[in-house]
Specification:
Layout lengths: L11 E4 L2 E4 L10 H5 L2 E3 L2 E4 L2 E2 L2 H14 L8 H15 L4 E9 L13 E8 L7 H6 L1 E5 L21 H12 L4 E5 L5 E4 L3 E6 L2 E5 L8 H12 L4 E4 L11 E6 L3 E8 L2 E2 L4 H14 L9
Parallel strand pairs: 8-9, 8-15, 12-13
Antiparallel strand pairs: 1-2, 1-7, 3-6, 4-5, 4-6, 6-7, 9-10, 11-12, 11-14, 14-15, 15-16
């Protein structure tokens, strides 16, 4: 089956307050964001005609802009309204939603305080980051070469485009070796996250998940933690050392794109997608699709 390139699809994109044809949503080659990474974005999903936790994602977009030192020309309420209208125009019930804001092309140089701020919102069909078959058998992760940096060196609480460069490199390296993704440590050597999702481990019926003090605290992880607590499970947020990896019985990724994805391998370590991973995977799908039985995805 031929896949249409993402820049050649049909439809419309909300671009600086107006809807433009999908193929005409373009920026100049000298745009500051292209040269210096001054862009922030969100990843959202719609299920059954509703965007999951739109307000939380929109608020994080605004927060990211503030951290990056620019003010969005639209309020959070206006961004949410534009997102909903873009989603409605897509005609989709299940979809991926991508708002992105960036500094424009008035000047090219490290300093760009006077550059205009732009915002675009696109909606398209994008299945789960991992296929159903991968989820059922558990995905395979390599250990990444690159680490999540010290918060004193990056704006780690912003969902900023430039911060994903080492994620792309790490995922490509893992794929070249036959893995699906890679697990990144942080600058201190603690377990951090994968290239695009947070991670949760299971040991003795309790959940253990890295303290998000140098990377994003996933909105999906917060949802899954709440579901786990509602099921009577203990959730431990703490620093996790890599030597603990063989002591866990289950592990899974959590994120908007990944959803809840059980893990079978992390480098030399093996895990069995088990009862807790499966229960939370189904509970999350029931959460995002109200009315869906938690017993079946």
């Amino acid at each position: 089956m031929t896949t249409v390139p993402i820049d050649s699809r049909d439809g419309v994109i909300w671009f600086d307050g107006a809807f433009v044809d999908w193929k005409d949503a373009k920026v100049h080659v000298l745009t500051h964001a292209l040269h210096y990474g001054s862009a922030i974005f969100e990843g959202e999903r719609a299920y059954g005609g509703a965007i999951y936790k739109l307000a939380e994602h929109s608020q994080r977009l605004v927060n990211s802009a503030n951290i990056m030192g620019f003010k969005l020309p639209w309020s959070q309420a206006e961004i949410e309204a534009a997102t909903l209208e873009t989603f409605a125009r897509s005609g989709l019930a299940d979809a991926y939603v991508r708002p992105i804001a960036w500094r424009g092309s008035e000047t090219v140089g490290v300093a760009a305080r006077a550059n205009s701020i732009h915002l675009a919102i696109a909606v398209w069909q994008w299945p789960s980051y991992f296929s159903p078959a991968e989820k059922l058998k558990g995905i395979r992760l390599d250990m990444a070469q690159y680490r999540r940096p010290d918060p004193l060196t990056i704006p780690c609480k912003a969902k900023a485009a430039g911060l994903y460069m080492i994620c792309t490199l790490s995922k490509h390296a893992a794929e070249e070796k036959g893995y699906t993704d890679a697990l990144m440590l942080d600058y201190r050597g603690y377990v951090a996250e994968s290239t695009g999702a947070n991670i949760i481990f299971v040991r003795d019926g309790e959940l253990h998940t890295p303290e998000p003090d140098c990377f994003l605290d996933s909105i999906t992880r917060q949802s899954v933690e709440a579901l786990a607590k509602g099921m009577g499970l203990t959730v431990n947020r703490r620093h996790i050392r890599p030597e603990e990896l063989p002591t866990f019985s289950e592990a899974f990724l959590v994120g908007t794109a990944a959803e809840v994805a059980p893990i079978a391998e992390i480098g030399p370590h093996r895990y069995q997608p088990g009862r807790i991973s499966e229960a939370l995977m189904h509970a999350y799908m029931a959460e995002v699709r109200p009315g869906l039985s938690a017993a079946a995805e």
